[in-house]
Known about the structure:
Layout: E1 6-11, E2 23-28, H1 35-61, H2 72-98, H3 110-121, H4 132-141, H5 155-175, H6 177-188
Antiparallel strand pairs: 1-2
Helix pairs in contact: 1-2, 1-5, 2-4, 2-5, 3-4, 3-5, 4-5, 5-6
Amino acid sequence: xxxxxxxxxxxxxxxxxxxxxxxxxxxxxxxxxxxxxxxxxxxxxxxxxxxxxxxxxxxxxxxxxxxxxxxxxxxxxxxxxxxxxxxxxxxxxxxxxxxxxxxxxxxxxxxxxxxxxxxxxxxxxxxxxxxxxxxxxxxxxxxxxxxxxxxxxxxxxxxxxxxxxxxxxxxxxxxxxxxxxxxxxxxxxxxxxx
Length: 194
């Protein structure tokens, strides 16, 4: 039972042209008699939504509830790793939106971004690394995201794409253009017995 609940009706301030503004009803037990109090409650709700996405990533992406261990300590260790993985997925989503022009090599290794770039775009590598936003979009396409100017990839398509990045980067290291230089240099110093 909710006691002393207050309600406030909100409306989207700048809807897209030709669209009805979205309206939502805020039901809260917190005080909302001033605009500052209302803004505080809305800010808390926005944070709550990010927490929901975080736990969805942990449950669906990392499939933490599907893990079966004989001892709790093993589950505890697994959970500790998956908490970091879920955080990284959300952090990458956030960085791609808040710092879209950042160099992708701040987050991704050369073999990661080069492999993904070649597989997704089927073009020659650019002279300089792509931006972080471009790289995140390319990785998300590996998870089912369809690139559009009007949308950004979400946590689900990003976590699915990131699962493939590791395999692609290992293949790049083993078979990519940089691997030939390594294997040529190694063959000079290798003794082959017949």
